[in-house]
Amino acid sequence: MAIQSVNIEKYRGIREGRIEDLAPLTILTGPNGCGKSTVLEAIHVAASPTGLDALALALTGRPRISDGLKWLAYKGMSGQKTDLAVVARDGSIYRRTLDRGPGWVALREGERVLGTIQSQGPSVTNTMKQGVPSASLPVVGLDLDESIPLARLFTHAVLEDRKQSVLALLAPVIEGFRDLEVLQDDNDQPVLFMTLHTGRVPVACTGSGTHAMVRLVLQMARLGEGTALLEEPEVHLHPRAIQQAARAILTGVRRNVQVILATHSLEVIDALLAEATDTDLTQMACYRCRLVDGVLGTGRIQGPAMARLRKDIEDDLR
């Protein structure tokens, strides 16, 4: 089920904001501090089956400070209630709120408490799950979901008969690449190995760019439906790999996976436009984000107009 809109009240730097008519491939652009990452976090917390884990990741995925829980609220102000809501294409509404106290924050769905996060200093010390969401969407944060082992992701791709498409995406950007396979390590644990012309090596022991590319391709191959959230896919990727990443993203969109990504890279947008068919372009939209006095505003550019308005998008990114 794709997401139609997201509404944010008093979360991080956004006092209020709404983005409507989200496309199957939604691209968020804008200068630093305009709320792109906050929008992705809000969707993940509000609608995913693991909203509490998403909230904990929102805390640990950024530089840690002693009062990090406080700054989940708009401008760190006390006595505020954060309201996050996502509307699906069928009109279903998924809403969760955050309540806070000294050193804790509770995630609620209506009157039900889904869980509480407590912290002491810069660390999240305790996450207490108290309830299962009554409703959620298949939302996955690709850049956050490092907990899924690569071997499991690859096995899923094989079982879904997507191994060849994975190999075809990786071969042009990894020098000497030949194959991927799951082998047992010395402790009888499954490990994903990459076969190169020089021999086999665990993917986890390759360079950060290679590791990031393999994980992105495998995660996109894993999703059969739902919404994938992707923050700055250009990080750690060589320009050639960005082109292949664009192919992986568009392959997922063609399989009815909604992708919402935030980027600072004009190269990512150019790669998506270069790989997109005319049909793909009708499924794309770029949202130029602005944050003024805590109010999130966006300007929407539909896919076919993105190339024509490229200079406007470039101004946001440069």
What does this entry look like structurally?
The chain has 318 residues and is α/β, with parallel strands linked by helices. The protein has a single domain, classed as Rossmann fold. It has 10 helices and 16 strands. The protein has helices at 36-47, 51-60, 150-159, 163-170, 208-222, 239-254, 266-275, 278-282, 303-306, 310-317, and strands at 3-11, 14-19, 25-29, 82-88, 93-101, 104-109, 112-120, 123-129, 139-141, 177-184, 190-196, 199-202, 227-231, 258-262, 284-292, 295-302. The strands form 2 sheets. A 13-stranded mixed β-sheet has the order 8-7-6-5-4-1-2-16-15-3-14-13-9, with helices on both faces. Strand 13 (227-231), helix 6 and strand 14 (258-262) form a beta-alpha-beta unit. It starts with a strand and ends with a helix. The model has no long low-confidence stretch (mean pLDDT 87).
Helix content: 25-40%
- H-E order: EEEHHEEEEEEHHEEEHEHEHHEEHH
Name the CATH class: Alpha Beta
Task: Describe the global form.
Answer: globular
The CATH topology assignment is Rossmann fold
Number of strands: 16
List low-pLDDT spans: none
Strand order of the largest sheet: 8-7-6-5-4-1-2-16-15-3-14-13-9
How many distinct domains?
1
Radius of gyration: 20 Å
C-alpha end-to-end distance: 34 Å
